[in-house]
Protein 1
Amino acid sequence: MKWPRILRWSWRILVADMLKIAHINSGYGDVQVLRDVSLEVLRGEIVSVIGPNAAGKTTLMRSIVGLTRPRAAEGGGIFFEGRNLDGLAPEQIVRLGITIAPEGARIFPDMTVLENLYLGAHALKDQRRIKGLLDRVFRLHPWLADRGSQLAGTLSGGERQMLSIGRALMSDPKLLLLDEPSLGLHPVVAEHVFSAIQAINQDGVTALMVEQKVAFSLEISARAYVLENGSIAMSGPAAELIDDPHIKKAYLAL
Amino acid sequence: MSLTIQALINGILLGGVYALYSAGFCLIFGVMGVVNIAHGELVMLGAFAAYWLFLLGRIDPLISLPISFGLLFCFGYILQRLLINRVVGAPPIMSYILTFGIHLVIANVALLAWTADFRTFAVPWAGTSLTWGGLVIPKARLVTFVLAGFVVGLLYLLLSRTRAGRAIRSTAQDWEMARLMGINVRAVYALTFALGAGVTGVAGSMVSTFFVIHPQMGLQYTIVAFCVAVLGGMGYLPGALLGGLLLGVVESLCAALLSPGLSVAVTFFILFLVLLIRPRGLLGRGMLE
């Protein structure tokens, strides 16, 4: 039976999770990285995925945006607002409203700051909307407005990260993926980045974040998952996980 | 003295020709990392387009330039979509093999269709020269020289100022991130190859007004385009202008002052030195493999 469109839409917007990952396996060639991973992100949340190096965090992010093709068990898969992302190309997935600030920022170094931001809005047509999004990014990082014509490759690590997040916001995403936004940053700068993420979230953008700076990320997250050796080892509200003995011992060095 | 100046002028004009047909080669390599060994065939097809349009339609090559551009643009687009897309991102040897195969197929189909005859055609204005104080400037080459600057400038503006240009440049820098910006990189590659082929078609049309054309002419053009790209920096578009001019001037001065037979040797010696000392090209802006 085919549901009327209005019902399907309201299901997607009101009932379905923002992002639901059910029983996926993923890897490169013969190397399996993720094993039976399930997680969900609700509308308006910040959710963290924490875990040691090589646990599969980046692979998880790449699987969501379609750069790595996950294999799902029967009935499993990656669902965005109730829609199965299986078989969609990255450029199609991004147009649905998911965007990523990838590991290491990966801004376009030979282009200016402003060009990087405009590329973030490449999928949009409406010039007034793009202008509005640009204003939002400039409100978040006012320094970007003065450095518009600077080559992005000449920015510092923290600036690159903020540009990367700004670029991601230019696509007006519903869900923002953040892959280690604090990687390689001075703690003061990292704190700056985290407060920016919090501000973005209060502006109505849902966020799924992969992080190694566990204390910071749990502090701003509603819930968290612990990814170890390619599987979800623990999950729960961030406030509970922060007091968990295993987390304290393994990640917070307490 | 006037011989040297004349040789210098000839060299600069020849350099313009080189730059014009190397720009497309540079663009394609810069964006896709594909060394297009069939590049010279695009020059040949552009030349024959002008030839037939003049012979059958009595259209002046200058006026048929947009037609050559359009024909080669479409041809390049189809070639990229059907074949070359399959080797983008693959190890370089794959693109060498594929484009070498394309080179053979186009050259031999052309041989079948048009025979191995050497052809020239006389466009009234193209055979004449400007003379000034004993110096001779052939009009056709002067027009080609101006066109080279114009075309490279136009390509540069397209890349730096337009939305499509932004998409092309971002794909060249990081194609995975470009996809995450919502850019269809396959379409970008096809557009890039089509543009490169179109510009090369224009170059071929101009070449046909002062060089002999025949179906097997392609390979020598590919080799020169490769040299120009190495001199200017692989994949760096303004480098094509510089590399082309330098190559033209060196060749022409060698031929006039030393011996015509030595000019190729000197060219390759300079190429060798550049690869040794400045592998990123004279301006240091090109790519290393």
Protein 2
Amino acid sequence: MHLFRHVDGWFVAALNAQERAVLASIATEVQGMVQGEAPPSLDVLPTLTRLFPPASMDDGEIARDFASLTGKALRDTKDKRLGRLAGRLARGTIRLDADEAAETVAALNDLRLAIAEILGIDTAEDADQVYATLADRAEPAGDHDVFGEVYVALTVLQESLVAALDAAATKRTD
Amino acid sequence: MSALPAPAQRADARAVNLPAKAWIVTVWDDPINLMSYVTYVFQTHFGFPRDTAERLMLAVHHEGRAVVATGPRETMELHCEAMHSYGLWATLSPQEA
């Protein structure tokens, strides 16, 4: 996995064709969940709850008011930026301006939240286990391991983009 | 935007002179969001200096949550919406007296 770098004002990641295809297909899949009908089917509900968490855990009225106030705008925001991410991945080398980088770092987060649901990451120990499983693995990968690999790759990619955005912000304030 | 009626529409005119109850936005720890990303979000959205953003991020990480904003309900709803847009787990609540 090639990481993001900040080069001449651009945020660049030279992902290979296979990496781009995998990430584009996941972005499209998650976009489909975000676009889905209301009420959502039971199989996508846990993922949507990670992407659109309740605004209150103990007051249903606050949570409902917030959802009715913000639900559509949040869905539209995530829908559009996931679609743009999938489109950029399909086109080739990722080269982003500052605004595009800012929406991409959030879209990558949405992908990590969605895959975390598949992997059942609910605690810090669960997340550590994903890394430990990959590090210890001798056998060929099963489906669960493949999602583990993608999760780790997305994590590293997102971390590199945050670092590149930090570097760019530091440069601006120098 | 909000379920709260505008002050002028309230039946009890005395309420107009009372300061509106403050609301808070709390960001909760979760095992997915990266520490660096949470810091970046706090800096980018709230305009916090890096040390403030890091202090709040560490409070989320070590104490499980941190209050990141306090103010009128409508403003807090906007901050909470922004946190959800970034993928952070944020909640809204009236500030305890």
